[in-house]
Amino acid sequence: MAKRPPVSGVRPAKRPIGPSGVRSAKRPIGGQVSKTAAREADPGGQKRSPGTAKRLFADLTPKRSGKRLFADLTPKPPGAGGDGPTVAELIPEKPRLGTVRDAAKDCRACDLYKRGTQTVFGEGPRKAEVMLVGEQPGDAEDLAGHPFVGPAGKLLDRALDEAGIDRKLVYVTNVVKHFKWEPRGKRRIHAKPNGSEIAACRPWLETEIALVKPRILVCLGATAAQALLGKSFKVTKQRGTFVPSKLAPRVTATVHPSSILRAPDEESRHDEMRRFVADLERVAAALSQE
Question: d(Cα 274, Cα 203) in Å, to the nearest integer?
């Protein structure tokens, strides 16, 4: 006698999910799943406990970080690495320079935090009229925890003084807040941050600009200029000129003071310093006109 067909309307049991998250192979009609197929479908080969499915999908469950829902689902720039929250998640909902600076101390949004000694945030008056933006902290800044305190910073201080700009009234910061370096013997040599690292760190700088609201923003070097003004901006051709931008009422760019230190000889350093001071004098003149 033929077997009775199964009662209609009864849903067959779903195929079990193995610890790897892959459904086990479908049982063929009239036979059993081979051991090879079973291993391919469930490499772990372990008995599934009632809580397995819950653990399998735990990483996909929306979580609450502070007051931000779905915080762990915020995308990061490709290639930035990092094993912490994005910068956007770290910035307080009602930011102030002090609270943002404190939040930046624990930034792990890109892999550079693994190389740097500490986060080097911007410094200066809360309502500074001029903001200077460099590329990244150097070796001296990384150790001290303050921007522009190394050889390039000392040269910048001298240039500002010659241009008639009070250094104490200027806010100084960098596009990237951690020191990227490569070992060379016992020395730590500057390495240029890549686009992903700059993108990961950019919200810190954008927040600084929004809070300080400088009348004049000066980009120091090609990395800062292209990060804020676009890849097509050429410091060599457009230095010292004011360009239209939503970042501040007046925006300009010049060389980074470290480039002057790298000049091949004393005469070249003198000429580059003179041009650098001339660019800053244009900034001072623009301040006096407003």
Answer: 34
- Which pLDDT score, from 0 to 100, does residue 72 have? 35
- The pLDDT value given to residue 118: 97
Rounded Cα distance, 37 and 34, in Å: 5
Name the DSSP class of 71.
Answer: G
Q: Do 222 and 235 touch, CB atoms closer than 8 A?
A: yes
- Is residue 80 within 8 A of residue 197, CB to CB? The reply is yes
Q: Residues of 247-281 as b/e, b for ≥16 C-beta within 10 angstroms?
A: bbebbbbbbbbbbbeeeeeeeebeebbeebbebbb
Q: What is the CATH number of the domain that holds 134?
A: 3.40.470.10
Residue 216 structure tokens: 């004049």
Which residues are paired to 219 by β-bridges? 133, 253
Strand, coil or helix: 285: helix
Structural domain span for residue 160? 65-289
72-129, pLDDT tens digit by residue?
A: 334 556 657 788 899 999 999 999 999 999 999 999 999 999 999 999 999 999 999 9
pTM given for the model: 0.73
Instruction: Assess contact for 194 and 202: CB atoms under 8 A.
Output: no
Could you give the angle at the alpha carbon of 120 between the alpha carbons of 117 and 122, nearest 5°?
Answer: 175
Tell the residue number behind the tokens 């910048």, with chain if given.
156
pLDDT in tens, 219-245: 999 999 999 999 999 999 999 999 999
Query: Does residue 18 form part of some domain?
Result: no
